[in-house]
Amino acid sequence: MWFKLLITSLFVISSIGALIVVITDDGDSGHKVAWVLALVMLPVVGLLLYLLLGVNWRIHPFFKKHHKRFTDLFEAQSDAATRSILFDDGQFASIREEFRPLARLLSDSRLSPQDGNDFEIITKGPRKYELLMQDLREAKESIHIEYFRFGADKGGREVRELIMKKAAEGVKVRYIHENFANIPIPASYYDQMVRSGVEMVRFTSPRQNILTLITRLNYRNHRKIVVIDGRIGYTGGMNINDNYFKEWRDTHMRITGKAVASLQHIFMDSWITAGGNLDKPLNEFYRPEAEESWPGEGSGGHLVQKGKILQVVPDEPEARIPLIQMSYEWALHNTRRYIYMQTPYLAPPTSILNALKTAAACGADVRLMLPQNVDSKIMRACNCAYYKECLRAGVRLFERQGEFIHSKTFVMDDYLSCIGTANIDFRSFAIDYEDNVYIYDTETARQCVDIFENDLKTSREITLEEVRRWPWYRKFYQKLIRLFAPLL
After folding, report:
1. pTM, whole model, 2 decimals?
2. Which residues contact 124 (CB under 8 A, 6 or more apart)?
3. Is 3.40.50.10860 the CATH number for 66-99+113-310?
4. N or C end: fewer C-beta atoms under 10 angstroms in the chain?
5. How is 122-158 classified by DSSP, letter by letter?
6. Residue intervals in the chain for CATH 3.30.870.10
């Protein structure tokens, strides 16, 4: 009897304590309401889930120390030239005046805007596969890979076989494995990479102490980064598997120039923080020289933008402020003419939802493109749950037909473009490790508008009248899912 009473008392005290922590936390109100509902409606399961997935561990001092190993190493081994490449604020004057406040905000990541970058915006999976495989084959010194998903299908195996071959040839191949996102794939698939000479660290390791493991259980490394020989960088929405190489519509970038040093910096932080080691001083990995030529330039309609200002922005739960979320808020509040956005998943924090509505209500042409065929039925319902509220405010909504569109982009006012890994949802803005590239350039913005308008050809505009005609049970299900949107 006394044992049951003790367990019950501990459970009640823990539940009340969890509710107090949720209510008094400074986080997003929608997120807090979702956890309160989970704790009240699912007393036992809700408490366990909250302790494992919901606690805002960022407020605790031990979590603040997460990157200390890397920061100490960088301070000891970086030289003035490396710091100048990464942190020089000399490009602010080259950015259009009204966009400088955003550039300064994003510099809170310590990575400044950088000029002299060449890049190709990749909108077709076969093109990324072609470029990536060619660059991997030509790698001489190092291949650094940080991906959310690294698949075991045909395309994933071909990439794996090539990097294993390069490792056997003596190229240093370093791979950061996001193990939770790749649980369906047997560990032996990645173990074979290690046996071939690929150096691998797990983003979340079961061998970490229990406290560290718990604090990282809900976090995912959602980045998609490749850096080859410190000179060529890839990032954007495409993972490594056939969905992205062959089937889905997505947006990615191949970059040469100073911005590659920023991608290298993000990778090195993740690598060292996850327990990886290096075979030479850190500053020797930063090589920002642009290439003289571009594979396939001018063929097949591939356009290479040259000499542009890019700002690569990492975001993560340890960051002082949620930079990517704030960049979306800034863009929506400051757009004067138009902003066109693409996202596969729509579960916005209240501040983003209000910014969307405010921009449209103020007269800007706000267009939001989502997939009609979503890869998750729950996320399809979640997306639709926000349609009516957006449409009533004047946001124009488009559903792209056919293959799933996985792009995470926006372009505004013929100057600012953004291509990255972050969705318009709570997880990307507050929980996962992400990286976006911000491009300050008129020519690129017009190219991004062309890309958006080309997608419009296979899209259907959703109207308020249509949404109002949806069956009541469909709308009820959507509203129910929306309650838990911050947890998805």
Report:
1. 0.89
2. none
3. no
4. N
5. E-SHHHHHHHHHHHHHT-SSEEEEEES-B--SHHHHH
6. 66-99+113-310
